[in-house]
Amino acid sequence: MKRIVLTGGGTAGHVTPNIALLNGLRQQEYEIRYIGSYDGIEKTLIEKEGIPYDGISSGKLRRYFNIKNFSDPFRVGKGYFQAHALLKKFRPDVVFSKGGFVAVPVVLAAQALHIPTIIHESDMTPGLANKLCIPKANKVCCNFQDTLSYLPKDKAAFTGIPIRRELLNGSRLAGLNFVGFTANKPVLLVVGGSTGSVVVNDAVRSILPELLKSFQVIHLCGRDKLDASMNEIPGYVQYEYIREELKDLLAAADLVISRAGANAICELLALRKPNILIPLSKNASRGDQILNAASFSRQGFSAVIEEENLTKDALLRLILETYNHRQTFVRSMEQNSISDSAACVLQVIEDLVSNQKKL
């Protein structure tokens, strides 16, 4: 049986594409293991899939000053030796990395053991973790055509991003029943990412009385970001995080407000959901979400408002305008030919493994 180690973590966006590959890997008879951080979100998500999971030490690599910059390199070093021992024991045919800082020691250890490695970059430009890993990888899959110009030509493969197939099979009725909403009033779904967003949460809550005149609101606000004072407001429900029922909530939504992480926006594109993107500002990120949102805006897939312009009046006006012109966005999205990205990535994996066996 062929063996593969998946890695990636820190946010759900570094895990869910790996989850989207699981069925295909099982069908191709791979024995699968996962290496992530000790207690990151990836541990919870992967263990629910019944995949053997190994946690290693990890540290964040920062471009700015932080006292942890002095200790995190030692954590990364420890993670390298842990990953090296795990890979040497399991001896996979290939390692597939979805990125995040926990993946760096795994990729470095794989190279030291001469294990073929594939990494995937979701955003328009490679992040720091993937920049460190690209020279060590055999292949680099990417989500945007424009990303090819940032990658070594002999390694680059444009595949798109694997989408969780279950998201395409949601039930609007099940979603409405889950939250207790009526089918006679449009639904606005607000998603701030797996860890939530204070900026998005505050902006939506500040206009909630006006929103509820036109919409019912489902608010996925992130861990520890619930507002108990809003629990009994008719037409408004809030959750820290939803997994199993997310497909149904997306099916129930007539309009979605989201951050502009690559996974999230590609899922909205696949679902043909009219959406408003609020990308992370450059003050809080390297600007990748701004580039992602700009690409989707140019193609007519999304309306965009940046944090610097996120006033109450501007957000409310954009919500109403986007909803009123929702069919224009849907038509633009329908013109996009979506390939089976999971199948494309699986083919890259299979080709690399097959070629290595011939050597």
Written overview of the protein:
Helix content is 41%, strand content 16%. It is of the alpha/beta class. Helix 1 crosses helix 14 (341-358). The longest helix has 19 residues, at 72-90. The mean pLDDT is 91.
Report the helical percentage.
40-55%
Radius of gyration: 21 Å
Question: Number of helix segments?
Answer: 14
Name the poorly predicted regions: none
Distance from N terminus to C terminus (CA atoms, Å) equals 18 Å
Strand proportion, as a percent range, falls in 15-25%
Sheet with the most strands: spatial strand order: 3-2-1-4-5-6-7
Tell me the structural class: alpha/beta
Q: Main beta sheet: strand number and arrangement? A: 7 strands, parallel
Any descriptors?
359 residues, alpha/beta, seven-stranded parallel beta sheet, six-stranded parallel beta sheet, 14 helices, globular
Secondary-structure map:
Elements: E1 2-7, H1 16-27, E2 30-37, H2 41-48, E3 53-56, H3 72-90, E4 94-97, H4 103-112, E5 117-121, H5 128-133, E6 139-142, E7 156-158, H6 172-179, E8 187-191, H7 198-206, H8 208-214, E9 216-220, E10 236-239, H9 246-252, E11 255-258, H10 262-271, E12 275-277, H11 288-298, E13 303-304, H12 312-324, H13 326-334, H14 341-358
Parallel strand pairs: 1-2, 1-4, 2-3, 4-5, 5-6, 6-7, 8-9, 8-11, 9-10, 11-12, 12-13
Helix pairs in contact: 1-14, 3-4, 6-9
